[in-house]
Write a structure and sequence with these properties.
267 residues, mainly alpha, MetI-like fold, globular
């Protein structure tokens, strides 16, 4: 039977690891976004060979589960890290590897292709004529991108970015498989310690749900705030079209009346 009193005791040890989960999420999102930007430069490159190579790389990264990346970074690259340490003259401790950093790199690498798709698809929705208009009034390419294109790109990409952020938040629960003690790891340890598994996992699920609701609400507010100028522009266009239609009908009626009067006078 489910014990509510025992479930309440699970909250504190699980909730104490919430900062670890959030740090993993923010680090992975930052690394994935940087990787997505770099990949998008290659995808939009005019050189066909570069586009083909990066398309194959993106397909490869999308097809590998996050857990495989976690195992590769934490269990299979000791020789690679020793070589890098000897080249750049720093110490790499095999017995104490930077598992937290490896987890961020693994999750970020797994989600970088999706960030790339988000950026490319958002950039394609921005009309190309806007850059030509910026150049015609004397803007440089960087000024046109910074003042005109990038603000629209951010508004368009924000909903997909919010989805990827939440997915990475949930993906942090896999890092306990490489002995990183975040919320899922704390729930498992507490369940094994007390030999009761239902209550800790249900409690962990509720905490994840609460964090998800907070970020979901936050991204919705951001979407409304950043998309306000687009919405107002759409409303202005709607009103302008409505007024122009009324004005055209009024002009047609007046011209028809004038034509009728002129024909009557001519008779």
């Amino acid at each position: 039977m489910f014990s509510f009193s025992f479930a309440l005791t699970c909250f504190q040890p699980i909730l104490e690891k919430l900062p670890v989960t959030l740090l993993l999420t923010l680090g992975a999102v930052a690394f994935a976004l940087i990787g997505g930007i770099l990949l998008s430069f290659g995808v939009l490159c005019k050189v066909r060979v570069i586009r083909t190579i990066l398309s194959i790389l993106i397909s490869f990264l999308k097809g590998i589960p996050i857990l495989v990346f976690l195992y590769i970074f934490n269990n299979s690259i000791d020789d690679v890290m020793r070589t890098i340490a000897s080249l750049f003259d720093f110490t790499y401790d095999i017995r104490n590897p930077p598992k937290f950093l490896f987890a961020i790199l693994a999750m970020g690498l797994s989600y970088a292709p999706y960030m790339c798709d988000m950026i490319v698809s958002a950039l394609e929705t921005v009309p190309k004529g806007q850059m030509e208009a910026c150049e015609s009034i004397g803007f440089t390419k960087w000024q046109g991108m910074r003042r005109i294109v990038l603000p629209q790109l951010a508004v368009i990409a924000l909903p997909n970015f919010g989805n990827h952020f939440v997915n990475l938040l949930k993906a942090t629960s896999l890092t306990y498989m490489v002995t990183i003690l975040e919320m899922m790891g704390a729930a498992k340890n507490y369940a094994v310690l007390n030999q009761k598994f239902l209550e800790p996992y249900v409690t962990c699920a509720l905490i994840y749900w609460g964090v998800f609701l907070v970020f979901e609400r936050g991204f919705r507010v951001l979407e409304k705030v950043t998309g306000r100028y687009l919405q107002s522009g759409a409303v202005r266009r709607k009103h302008r079209n409505l007024l122009s239609g009324i004005w055209q009908r009024y002009v047609l009626k007046t011209t028809d009346k004038k034509a009728i009067c002129q024909t009557e006078k001519a008779r």
